[in-house]
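STRUCTURE:
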């Protein structure tokens, strides 16, 4: 089959309008008919018709309080100064909440508003229902004294006080809540017609896909996109059927589509929508139906397909997970809601300021994933990875920011609208830490979340210099750094003095840690020190400029008189110790400078080089804040220290100690 290359794209708005106008024209976006279900099982379902009460609630006049039931006219002369006495069975009866009102009585006086007088035999004290009162001490009461008049209807629930027979309880196209179930049952509605859940076929495709749990190997990808889309469909009120993985065989996909269109209200295919040699989904759809749109000017999510197969709407989602999710939210979600008779609500939007400059491509509307933080009363937006395959960018995201197609990007400090994915109160408790990467931060984040679940540590690994710069620009709560000054041999303070001369800061030690050369198990290249990195058969991976590890390496090279350009791979960079360790473990490089805990995480050998100080820099104005004090509580806890020591390569003897205020 020929390679399918789409040459034109519609804007998001154009694609949505074309798709839904066509579906409405063919009556394929109409609300589904109802099905009869039990009321007690209706939570979250959508009503297919208005629901009216069959009986009144309460069904009879009932006591609203424990006390005595009286005739109001018998109490009119009662007052604080002139109380009156009432006789049992003649002027009053004892009654409990919910009991029917005896004929001829029209008011209730609360038990705490009466005085109990002389007693009578048990036989004579029975109430109108024939039951002894539940109130202890009133079984043999003959008379009571009251000090105020009652009015007709006092503390009595009338018939239909809550629900009146034939009253509308909930309208059509209403999502049923727990309180609705109670009101319906009170109104005698035991069954109701709810809209049938839209059935959505989810079909994953690709030769490279394997099921979760199968043995992974290079070139194979675990198929999890369908599980994400299934979960989203469930959240939206639909019902998903995930089909078996369809290999890249056109006829196989065609056969599955023919069956799926007959069994479902919507058909979704994952992957095969781009322009690769095995991306033939659009051609197959054309052969059995109609392609309305192929290519939408959004990023991620561009290679989306919209069409119709027979009488069934079709959506082709891109294979990259973030692309698939963004596309599904823009096209599948509204369609599911239409079939339920609903309109999808827009997310809450807030104003935020960009913490970094972002360059965007003209012509595509970009959905930028961001983390949010409250810095000095201002919500700052921190861009996350923009890769369409980086699912964790959505896992971590607090919000989405849409960059218009005709805008080249966003400037630092620019005010933007952020669509919230997380509760704003939780977002305001985010603690932003920017700077040098260390596995300790992951332990710290987890322990903070475990002890104080409403607080979250958000780390941005931009290197030690990047952390100090973030403090200077007032876009972080904390910075982590391990910058060695070559002239003085001192850590951090010379750089702080130079970059932040007028800031009031607290410098606290987090840990001392071992830096060294990470190599494969058995150290096959026999690397013993920094001087061995210049060997011709050794490939090296470096850390980014501005990182403390990069500064340390340059210092050590200069000290030994080694030209950095003599190291094969000196210019190749990674942004975390774990990424360096991963590169060594998979064999793309032979060595990289990093911390012992990262080497242990990937079961690498480690050649020690130096023990260094790793500090946290805290602006004084944040130091006494609740969020920072909670973080410091964790840092100084024995539980945290024990978990860090288990990583290996750490000295916590000074952890939590303030080095300078």
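SEQUENCE:
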């Amino acid at each position: 089959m020929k390679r399918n290359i789409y040459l034109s794209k519609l804007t998001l708005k154009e694609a949505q309008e074309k798709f839904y106008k066509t579906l409405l024209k063919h009556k394929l976006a109409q609300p589904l008919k109802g099905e009869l279900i039990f009321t007690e099982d209706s939570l979250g379902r959508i009503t297919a018709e208005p629901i009216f009460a069959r009986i009144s609630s309460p069904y009879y006049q009932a006591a609203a309080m424990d006390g005595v039931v009286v005739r109001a006219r018998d109490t009119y002369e009662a007052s604080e100064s002139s109380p009156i006495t009432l006789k049992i069975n003649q002027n009053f009866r004892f009654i409990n909440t919910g009991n029917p009102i005896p004929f001829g009585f029209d008011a209730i006086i609360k038990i705490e508003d009466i005085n109990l007088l002389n007693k009578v035999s048990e036989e004579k004290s029975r109430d109108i229902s024939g039951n002894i009162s539940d109130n202890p001490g009133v079984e043999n009461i003959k008379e009571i004294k009251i000090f105020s008049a009652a009015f007709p209807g006092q503390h009595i629930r009338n018939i239909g006080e809550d629900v009146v027979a034939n009253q509308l309880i909930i309208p059509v196209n209403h999502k049923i809540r727990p309180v609705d179930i109670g009101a319906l049952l009170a109104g005698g509605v035991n069954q109701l017609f709810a809209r049938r859940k839209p059935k959505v076929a989810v079909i994953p495709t690709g030769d490279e896909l394997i099921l979760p749990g199968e043995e992974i190997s290079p070139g194979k990808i675990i198929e999890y996109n369908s599980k994400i889309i299934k979960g989203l469909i469930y959240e939206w009120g639909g019902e998903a059927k995930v089909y078996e993985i369809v290999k890249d065989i056109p006829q196989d996909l065609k056969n599955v589509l023919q069956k799926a269109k007959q069994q479902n209200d919507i058909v979704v295919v994952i992957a095969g929508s781009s322009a690769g040699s095995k991306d033939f989904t659009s051609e197959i759809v054309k052969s059995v139906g109609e392609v309305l749109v192929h290519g939408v000017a959004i990023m991620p999510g561009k290679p989306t397909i919209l069409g119709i197969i027979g009488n069934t709407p079709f959506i082709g989602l891109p294979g990259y997970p973030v692309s698939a999710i963004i596309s599904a939210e823009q096209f599948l979600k509204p369609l599911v809601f239409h079939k339920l008779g609903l309109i999808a609500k827009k997310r809450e939007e807030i104003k935020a300021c960009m913490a970094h400059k972002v360059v965007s491509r003209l012509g595509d509307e970009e959905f930028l994933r961001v983390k949010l933080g409250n810095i000095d009363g201002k919500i700052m937006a921190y861009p996350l990875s923009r890769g369409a395959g980086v699912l964790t960018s959505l896992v971590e995201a607090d919000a989405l920011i849409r960059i218009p197609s005709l805008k080249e990007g966003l400037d630092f400090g620019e005010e933007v609208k952020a669509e919230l994915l997380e509760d704003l109160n939780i977002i305001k408790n985010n603690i932003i830490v920017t700077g040098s990467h260390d596995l300790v931060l992951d332990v710290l984040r987890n322990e903070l979340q475990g002890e104080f679940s409403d607080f979250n540590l958000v780390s941005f690994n931009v290197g030690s210099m990047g952390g100090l710069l973030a403090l200077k620009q007032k876009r972080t709560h904390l910075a982590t750094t391990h910058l060695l000054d070559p002239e003085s041999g001192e850590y951090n303070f010379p750089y702080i003095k130079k970059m932040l001369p007028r800031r009031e800061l607290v410098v606290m030690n987090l840990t001392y840690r071992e830096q060294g050369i990470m190599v494969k198990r058995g150290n096959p290249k026999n690397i013993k020190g920094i001087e061995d990195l210049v060997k011709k058969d050794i490939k090296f991976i470096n850390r980014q400029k501005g990182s403390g590890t990069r500064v340390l390496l340059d210092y050590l090279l200069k000290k030994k008189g080694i030209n950095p350009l003599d190291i094969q791979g000196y210019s190749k960079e990674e942004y975390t110790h774990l990424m360096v360790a991963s590169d060594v473990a998979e064999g793309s490089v032979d060595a990289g400078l990093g911390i012992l805990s990262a080497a242990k995480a990937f079961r690498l050998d480690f050649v020690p080089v130096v023990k260094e100080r790793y500090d946290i820099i805290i602006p004084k104005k944040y130091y006494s804040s609740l969020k920072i004090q909670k973080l410091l509580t964790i840092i100084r806890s024995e539980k945290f220290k024990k978990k860090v020591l288990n990583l290996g390569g750490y000295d916590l003897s000074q952890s939590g100690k303030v080095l300078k205020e």
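REMARK: Residues 73 and 151 are 8 Å apart (CA to CA).
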